[in-house]
Predict the 3D structure of the following.
Amino acid sequence: MIPDYVNIDDLMDLIDLALREDVGTGDVTSNSTIDSRTKAKAIFTAKEPGVVAGLELADLVFESVDSRLSTEWFVTDGDPVSVGDELGTVEGNARSILLAERLVLNFMQRMGGIASATRKMVERVKPYGTQILDTRKTAPGLRSLDKWAVLLGGGSNHRLGLYDMVLIKDNHIAACGGVESALTAASDIRKKRRGEYAIEIEAKHLDQVRDIVATGLADVIMLDNMVTIQADGSVDTSRLDDAVKLVGGQLRTEASGNVTLDTVGAIASTGVDAISSGSLTHSVRALDISLNVHLRDLNEA
């Protein structure tokens, strides 16, 4: 299911832009080597284990390239797959399939990589009931797709942009003159807008945590960079433990900074409500998927 925040018109514009970037004046290779009447069937195959994402987007790309192309999927978005699993097929004009191939794979591989990384983190924190959140550290122009992929991996979306949540960070605090000033100003604006926005604020040390809790004006506190990786690779969560105890359940807690698959379990064990990870989207490794045309499936010349 396509999330509400994915604007279909914008998505179609993105597909059109990407196709123009790739195809330009035409696919000279396919046009010079393949007869225009050739029909083919191509198979999507997983070349590594992971989580499938981007099938609905792939359908939109194929439809944009050639409405006569037809897909059949053997899995659904969000499904786990193993090496060698066939994900589905696309059938129709061979030139059209090859014209759409790279864009479809680029979308599916990126979204699949994000979904796969998210699923690993979600599984790692499952014993603690901790929520895994994404960030705004997404590829420009692809934010809605990156966040969609996080959902398919079992994670949750943080704010979509600067417009749908107040998130007061260290630079805001410095520019405003302190924690209390920033929270008071944000709270006053929220009252005027009848509670339209949630208010979250970042804390980097325990004194800030005390000050934030004392105001009673925040909904969420982001406990930033309170985890240290020791020389031996162990994870020191003592500052984060202290911060969570100071909050004492009076507002929702979110941990950020030094979040990796190796550290996320220890971070979750402190009792934080959520953990946000920029690496899910800014350092994604594409899920390896192939699309191969099989000559034995050619049915018409």
User: Anything to note?
Assistant: Residues 94-125 form the longest helix (32 residues). The chain is about 40% helix and 20% strand. Residues 121-282 form a domain with the TIM Barrel fold (CATH 3.20.20.70).
